[in-house]
Amino acid sequence: MDAFSRAWDARPSRLEACYELASRLRVKGRYRTAHALLGGVVGTPEPDDLLFTRSWVYRWGLLFEYSITAYWVGDYAASIEACDRLLAMPDLPEPIRRQTVLNREFAVGQTAPAVPGPSGGRHGREQTTVASANEV
């Protein structure tokens, strides 16, 4: 992760390293750190560099990771809003679209009032796994 941090420091206008850093932090369970990084860069336009840019990182990658970290830090409204923005993109790859639909459902499930069942638990919302672009 240090290499990604140094790469981003060297070229702050290039966010591919930031994406990789945030993704790895999230996978390691460091949701707040990843979310803080992403919050400052989501929506940044792709630079005019000609070489080696990964356009998808700017178009939907950062926002996808943000939607996941928002969920894990408990900002369900931000997660839902990010998912809605992703789902409005006509060029969003189908595997990412499917996962975004699921991720949105998880976030919506956290905002809905709990329905007590016979055991006093919450029905239909026990699963809280949210996958990332690296896992689909």
Helices and strands in order, then pairings?
Blueprint: H1 2-10, H2 16-27, H3 31-39, H4 55-72, H5 76-87, H6 94-111
Organism: Streptomyces lacrimifluminis
Biased composition (Polar residues): 127-136
Protein name: Tetratricopeptide repeat protein
The parts where pLDDT drops under 50 for at least 5 residues are 120-129
What general outline do the C-alpha atoms trace? globular
Q: How many β-strands, per DSSP? A: 0
**What's the CATH architecture?**
Alpha Horseshoe
Strand content: under 5%
Query: How many domains comprise the coordinates?
Result: 1
Rounded to the nearest angstrom, the distance between the terminal CA atoms is 22 Å
Describe this structure in words.
Residues 111-136 are annotated as: Disordered. It is a single chain. The chain has one domain (2-44, 54-111): Alpha Horseshoe (Serine Threonine Protein Phosphatase 5, Tetratricopeptide repeat), CATH 1.25.40. The longest helix has 18 residues, at 55-72. The radius of gyration is 16 Å and the shape is globular. The two termini are 22 Å apart. The protein is mostly helical and 136 residues long. Helices cover 57% and strands 0% of the residues.
